[in-house]
Every structure is written in C-alpha cells, then in structure tokens.
Amino acid sequence: MDNTRFIENETFHQSVLIQEQDDQLQSLYGTARNIHDIATTMRDEIEDQNMLLDEFGEHTDCTSNRLEHAMKKVKYIIKANEGAFSI
C-alpha cells in the first residue's frame, strides 16, 4: 500500500511540475513573441528612416550642385567686372 501511495504522490508532484513548466514556457513564448513584434517594428522604422535619409541626401546633392553652379556664375561675374570699378 505504501508503494502505491508513493507512486501516486510522485505522479501528482510530476504533474504539478509539468504544469508549472508549461506555464513558464507559455510565459516565455509570450515574451519572445513581444520581442519579435518589437524587433519587427524597429526594422520597419529603420527602413523608413533610411528611405527618408536617402531622399534627404538626394535633395542635399541637388542643392549642392545648384549652389556650386551659382557660385561659378558669381565668380565669372566678379572676374568679368574686376577692372570696371577701378578708381
């Protein structure tokens, strides 16, 4: 009779331990899922930011080229008029 009671008691304890492990694994899965969702959101945000930075870089390059062209015109005008205002 003692063996039967011991086996029943051990079986019960094992069932409790398995249930606790299942609960912990479920919690761990939830945490991992949250981390995955956060990482996915971060990836999407980084991709959006990279696209904005690329567009900004293109606009900056265009503006820089226009400014460089304007500066060449100003230098040409200054050079062409160097002797015109001599006293």
TrEMBL record:
Gene3D superfamilies the record matches: 1.20.5.110
PROSITE patterns linked to this entry: T_SNARE (PS50192)
Residue ranges the record marks as coiled coil: none
UniProt domain T-SNARE coiled-coil homology: residue ranges: 15-77
InterPro entries assigned to the protein according to its UniProt record, in alphabetical order: T_SNARE_dom
Domain of life: Eukaryota
Listed name of the protein: t-SNARE coiled-coil homology domain-containing protein
Organism annotation: Gigaspora rosea
